Amino acid sequence: MRESNVTVLGIKSLKWKMRRSANVSHFFVALIQFNLFVRSSIIPMEQQMYIREPPLDYVDDIDATMEAGIQFLTAFVPPPGGDRDRGPLIVGILWAQAGIATIIVFMRLYARFMIHTTGWDDWLMVVTLAIFIGSIIIITLQDSVGGYRHVYYLDENAIMRALELNFILRGVHIIGYATGKASIGAFILRLIGPQNMWQKWVVWVLIIFTTLVNVLNCIFNFVQCDPVQGNWDPSVSAKCWAKKAQLKFAYFMCSENILADAVLAIIPATFLFSMNLSIRKKINLTILLGLGSMATICGIVKTIELDSISNDLDFTWGLYAVTVWALSEIFVIITCGSVPALKPLWDRYIAGRFSENNSEHGNWFENYRMRHVYQARLRSASTPAKHTPKSESTSRSLWSSDPGVQTTTTSTTKQLNVHASGEREIETIQEPESAV
Q1: Are residues 98 and 133 in contact, defined by beta-carbon separation less than 8 angstroms?
Q2: Which residues contact 217 (CB under 8 A, 6 or more apart)?
Q3: H-only helix segments in 55-119
Q4: Contact between 297 and 329 (Cβ < 8 Å)
Q5: What is the domain extent for residue 323?
Q6: Is residue 351 part of a domain?
Q7: Model-level pTM?
């Protein structure tokens, strides 16, 4: 029975090569592969059902054809280095990232509650953190069944369980890209003033399109095989989409995510440099709001690794690199996307202590207190003043919940500083001549 199964597999491989052979040399290579398959001792019985046809499609390159044959057999001979497990390493790295990301998100929420400017960008980042931690839990379960060892050393049940968990992971972590980038986009929208409409349109289109692409990829992941068990159980007779089509859309999603990170990093510079801020502060805020571009590095490496494992039969071993980079991309989105929102904490606990009279930062607590004192005076004023529609709109936007708008009023003794965190800071305040 064992020899029969192996022979069938060998004939299958031989037919595959004959269909694609352009010359006698190719056929000879296929015949060598067939003879290797007949040596049934090479292939453990429990792994025979997981053998796929050689995935590479070379016609004219004899070296590439030989490489395909070698790669086809690699997973079924003892790998160099013996039975090694990279699972504990990936689990340790990702749980360390989860701890850092959790602290940063909680600091972000504290800063926002402190200045009463919480928004849906904050809650989207909380959702991203939840998806990130959920993905790491799945990876931890995958490690428990040997999901990051060489496939040669895994039995049938372990392989099926590793495939199933990886299938779930692919669908879950993708949503983290969508919510994370939507959070960064929503944060930038809060900083864009009404005079910068084209930037708002660009960010909105980017949020919607990025979300659509990632959600579609998640849906495609779960519906690519009917029944769904065909994704991890080769004994199930299932109809599945062509692997090439799935990979093409995955590459498209990765490319779109990289582009989204780059655009979200550039957009702030287009409106910050038109604000009434010092050059130093403009540069600092541009860098601060562009930190999310670091996710492009993870995205590029992840795409390269995805291409390298697409034809790797030792898939459990090859999953390590692409998984680390895929989850690290979400980690970078969470941390770098939350750093700008921590500006109030910096102003209050660090900058305020070391530069009490700094004109860039000012006394955070005093400005925070005076802002509310001034608001109370405005509300309690009994005689309304007449203003032009422009100044009327400017006064309303001064204390609006949509932070970040560069605003001036008719009073020349009042200056508004706009921080990347969405906080408005008044450096010099005098009682208004008339109420707004």
Answers
A1: yes
A2: 174, 249, 250, 253
A3: 62-74, 87-114
A4: no
A5: 87-345
A6: no
A7: 0.67
